[in-house]
Amino acid sequence: MSKSLEHLYQLSKKESRIIIGLMSGTSLDGLDVALCALAGSGPATRVNLLQFSTVPYTDKLKKEIKNIFSKRQVDLQQVCLLNAYIGTYHGTLILDCLRQWGVRPDEVDLIASHGQTIYHAPAALHGLPDMPNATLQIGDGDHLAVKTGIITLSDFRQKHIAAGGEGAPLAVYGDYLLFSEKGQDRIMLNIGGIANFTYLPGSLDPAQIFSSDVGPGNTIMDAFIQSQYPDKYYDADGALAAGGTYHPSLLAALLDHDFFRQPFPKTTGPELFNLNYLSEALRKTPINQMSPADIMATLNRFSAEAIAGAIKKTLGESNGEIFVSGGGMHNPLLLKNIQELLRQMRIRSLNTLGINPDAKEAILFATLANECIAGQSPGLGAGNPKIPAIRMGKISLPD
Ligand SMILES: Nc1ncnc2c1ncn2[C@@H]1O[C@H](COP(=O)(O)OP(=O)(O)OP(=O)(O)O)[C@@H](O)[C@H]1O
Ligand SMILES: CC(=O)N[C@H]1[C@@H]2OC[C@@H](O2)[C@@H](O)[C@@H]1O[C@H](C)C(=O)O
């Protein structure tokens, strides 16, 4: 048996593992690197975040990814090059982080790499008969494994699609293992480029649990501010939106899309929620001139309406606890808008459960890798058609 395979076998029998979770999401802002200690598996999983860092992407890399991100026509050579480049680059960033943290690569058991989503095409979005759900993440796992010398699990989403899902949201698996609480209905809300949530009923009934995207997120707000103010990447602290007023007619046009009428679970991305989507809504709005601040205020309210509407649909009149994570939680106006729409519900940071909200998605991928290697049987999904009962992650050995 090769040294790596023997190591992998021994790892699967260990009581605890050191796993680096990586997330680079649709906001293209950088790479989240979470060094985690995971003990046990399945519902007995315990996770401890040892170190966390977000390494910002350079402007050059952001630009290169943007050239191929969520676009139907791209330079295929660029896709091919970035697949290899990002794999090795993420490996370099991990080695830098480990050096800063005083951790040797041989002290790390596994890397769990999400990769960079460049296109997400669930059937409801592409609408092509006879074509499947599909999604594509680049940043090849073999390159990470060889660069770091650490066994790497990557490309988690393909198995989900192969088993009947849309390749997302995968958060449901980790949310269930880490955050379910008997007797308390919980909503685990993540506001990234796209916003998504997991419903964890207090009954712990696996048949009721699900996870779904709800819409934007920050993605249209980010795209809009970048188009108006080239020196800004996002509406820091909601400042631009706070100086404007939202327009009900534009808001109604933004909310008038089939995506919002589809049942849960569903997924989406910037392939739909982009500047064209905004232009189309503006075209349907009977107002000639709107200031950037008013448009931003409306986009902010739009994200809040999409999020609050999905949560209301799920919880009805019952009171649930909402635990929020993701970059959007740092936008005070967005949180104020959501709270206004969900008056009776308590919204708290994921921090209150002892987990760094910015690290959550990276931790979730570390948890998926832990399940793949050490889980006795897929911890969730059996009997729930919305959640395929599978282990995810392709294994890359460094030797
Ligand atoms: N202080 C802040 N004020 C307003 N918005 C902020 C702030 N900090 C972060 N954000 C928003 O959060 C975004 C980054 O969020 P995050 O890193 O969670 O997204 P992501 O993981 O890339 O997306 P996804 O989860 O959809 O893949 C930024 O692009 C910005 O829109
Ligand atoms: C295809 C893809 O990368 N989807 C992401 C994206 O970012 C947020 C939302 O859209 C979510 O569905 C998913 O990521 C999280 C981590 C998930 O799978 O749960």
UniProtKB/TrEMBL annotation:
InterPro entries: Anhydro_N_Ac-Mur_kinase (IPR005338), ATPase_NBD (IPR043129)
One BP term from GO: amino sugar metabolic process
Record has Kinase as a keyword: yes
Residues involved in ATP binding: G25, T26, S27, L28, D29, G30, L31, D32
Catalytic reactions on record: 1,6-anhydro-N-acetyl-beta-muramate + ATP + H2O = N-acetyl-D-muramate 6-phosphate + ADP + H(+)
Keyword terms of this UniProt record: ATP-binding, Carbohydrate metabolism, Kinase, Nucleotide-binding, Transferase
GO molecular function list: ATP binding; kinase activity; phosphotransferase activity, alcohol group as acceptor
First-tier enzyme category under EC: transferase
Gene3D superfamilies in the record: 3.30.420.40
Similarity comment: family membership: Belongs to the anhydro-N-acetylmuramic acid kinase family.
Function per UniProt: Catalyzes the specific phosphorylation of 1,6-anhydro-N-acetylmuramic acid (anhMurNAc) with the simultaneous cleavage of the 1,6-anhydro ring, generating MurNAc-6-P. Is required for the utilization of anhMurNAc either imported from the medium or derived from its own cell wall murein, and thus plays a role in cell wall recycling.
HAMAP family membership: AnhMurNAc_kinase
Record protein name field: Anhydro-N-acetylmuramic acid kinase
Species assigned in the record: Adhaeribacter aerolatus
Gene encoding the protein: anmK
